[in-house]
From TrEMBL:
Protein name: endo-polygalacturonase
PROSITE patterns: POLYGALACTURONASE
Keywords: Cell wall, Cell wall biogenesis/degradation, Glycosidase, Hydrolase, Secreted, Signal
GO terms for biological process, alphabetical: anther dehiscence; carbohydrate metabolic process; cell wall modification involved in abscission; fruit dehiscence
Active site: H287
Catalysed reactions listed for this entry: (1,4-alpha-D-galacturonosyl)n+m + H2O = (1,4-alpha-D-galacturonosyl)n + (1,4-alpha-D-galacturonosyl)m
Protein's cellular compartments: Secreted, Cell wall
Gene name linked to the record: PG
SUPFAM superfamilies per record: Pectin lyase-like (SSF51126)
Enzyme Commission number(s) of this protein: 3.2.1.15
Pfam families, per database record: Glyco_hydro_28 (PF00295)
């Protein structure tokens, strides 16, 4: 075995710096006029969009039987001060046990203060959660003593749509100040991900603003058949470990129209992920789109079939990155980056096989 046991099998690594001009950048970054026609054939060719959409077509057929669940009728105040966690939990129980499809509504012009909350499945029917207003995280760190790794967690849910155009505010300032990355005297401790989907299948997450996450903004872990679209993600450039979209051990995910400005990776794709397609991504500030890190703690990691088609980077530290730790093993294969536009990017393409993200220096490992 070699020092670098991670073997990067980049079968196809296509990079074309597009000449598309950025002078008419809109909020969601649709300024490349060439996208749609390319995109269609790209998606058709891979059939992912169709595969995922297929699951949701059934919803329309039963539309007239939809059960409306409004969190305010469970006592949620939405005044920004009252802890509404209990009301949300009760509303979810009702939603999850419904035999007919559910429209779970979070009203507009309200600000619901929430401690960490676990939306646990399996549920009996389709659930569409429409967040029109704002969900705001409690910034009392001891509220997370029961689970310091998640704020809002959806687990084991199938046929779920989360959208509505509202805002998810992680209120992360207190976590950033207490991060070991910011204050080297503090121990490194778990910090919540704002929005986590764990073991979800047939999932759509669309039209949401997610800001000031405690750590990662949105994480898809061990999910299948996911469509994530029209997401606006925003945290300060100096906020620590605030990845925009994190994809771990997830198969068949289409990320489209995401505008991400943050303190860490705009998108990170880690071990066990397959068929990850990202289109129309705007990134900056941030650390770019990363495959990895892979292979930490001598682990075996595999990622394959990653397509990034149409991404713009503005003032990011990195553009396209693959990062692996010494001592790990595995592969990163069939990775394509196409139609990439960069401005003011420090490391446009970086393959780092000596990645080290810890306080103690990583010692060089010897050939065995
Ligand atoms: C923070 O939460 C803990 C336990 O959840 C509680 O005892 C404490 O009073 C809270 N602190 C503030 C400032 O609200």
């Amino acid at each position: 075995m070699s020092i670098q046991k991670i073997i990067l099998l980049i079968i196809l690594f296509v990079l074309s710096i597009s000449t598309c001009r950025s002078n008419n950048l809109e909020e969601f970054g649709h300024d490349c006029q060439a996208y749609p026609s390319y995109l269609e054939s790209f998606i058709e060719g891979n059939n992912i969009q169709n595969e995922i959409s297929h699951y949701f077509n059934n919803i329309k057929m039963v539309e007239n039987k939809v059960k409306l669940i409004d969190v305010s009728s469970f006592g949620a105040k939405g005044d920004g001060n009252t802890d509404d966690t209990r009301a949300f939990k009760q509303a979810w129980q009702d939603a999850c046990s419904s035999n007919t499809p559910v429209n779970f509504v979070v009203q507009q012009n309200k600000n619901y203060l929430l401690k960490n909350i676990h939306f646990l499945g399996p549920c009996k029917s389709f659930i569409s959660m429409q967040i029109f207003g704002t969900l705001e995280a409690s910034d009392n760190m001891s509220d997370y003593n029961n689970d310091r790794r998640h704020w809002i967690l959806f687990e084991n849910v199938e046929n779920l749509v989360v959208g509505g155009g509202g805002t998810i505010n992680g209120n992360g300032n207190i976590w950033w100040q207490n991060s070991c990355k910011i204050n080297k005297n503090l121990p490194c401790k778990d910090t919540p991900t704002a929005l986590t989907f764990y073991n979800c299948n047939k999932l759509k997450v669309k039209n949401l603003k997610i800001k000031n996450a405690q750590q990662i903004h949105v994480s898809f872990e061990t999910c299948t058949n996911v469509e994530a679209s029209n997401l606006m993600i925003n945290s300060p450039e100096n906020s620590p470990n605030t990845d925009g979209i994190h994809v771990a051990n997830t198969h068949n995910i289409q990320i489209s129209s995401a505008t991400i400005g943050t303190g860490d990776d705009c998108i990170s794709i880690t071990s066990g992920s397959q068929k990850v397609h990202a289109t129309d991504i705007t990134c900056g500030p941030g650390h770019g789109i990363s495959i990895g890190s892979l292979g930490s703690g001598n682990s075996e990691a595999h990622v394959s079939d990653i397509n990034v088609y149409g991404a713009k980077f503005y003032g990011t530290t990195n553009g396209l990155r693959i990062k692996t730790w010494q001592g790990g093993s595995g592969s990163a294969s069939n990775i394509k980056f196409q139609h990439i536009d960069m401005e003011g990017v420090e490391n446009p393409i970086i393959i780092d096989q000596n990645y080290c993200d810890q306080n103690d220096p990583c010692k060089d490992q010897q050939l065995k």
